[in-house]
Amino acid sequence: MAGNTVCDTEPDEGLVLDDDQQRHCRELWQSRIEEAQRRNRERIRQVIEENRLRRELTASLPPPPVTVETFISAGSLSYGDVVVTDFGPRVFIGKLLEAATPEDFVAIDSPRSPHRARATQFDGAFPERRAPPPHSPAASTLKGRQP
Asked: From CA 4, how far away is CA 70, in angstroms rounded?
């Protein structure tokens, strides 16, 4: 054990090790390296196994419910309520006492929506890009005229 302290100390310019001490230090350092590599391999195996189990668990879980279905089953919607889904904001146009269906939800700018006149207030809530307004021909004819 006393030989280990020689191997663990900082290098000293005045310290000279004989052949047995050098061999012992090399063996000690090599065993430490091998032990660290073994622990590393074991940790890698453990992480791989944890990832495999996590993937199996995730695959066995049912998919998350669709937003519209959540509101359909809630039964607390009334005509004109706005619901934000993966497809953007939708308006409930179904009847209060009847079972709601996905067809009871329409886009805000739909002709069946009570909010169609105010659809521009919801710009930015839509997941898809809106087309820019068409170029007005009146503006281009004014540029073409010379005084």
From this structure: 67
Task: Read off the pTM.
Answer: 0.38
Look at the block and give the residue holding tokens 């000279």: 16
Strand partners, 84: 89
Q: Are 116 and 109 in contact (CB under 8 A)?
A: yes
CB within 8 Å of 101: residues ≥ 6 apart: 72, 94
Between 35 and 104, the higher pLDDT residue: 35
Helices and strands per DSSP (H, E), number in the chain = 4, 3
Mean pLDDT confidence for 128-132: 54
Helix (H) or strand (E) holding 82: strand 82-85
Per-residue pLDDT tens for 82-98? 887 777 788 888 887 77
Between CA 57 and CA 79 the distance in angstroms is 40
Q: Which residues, 6+ apart, have CB-to-CB distance to 112 below 8 Å?
A: 93, 106
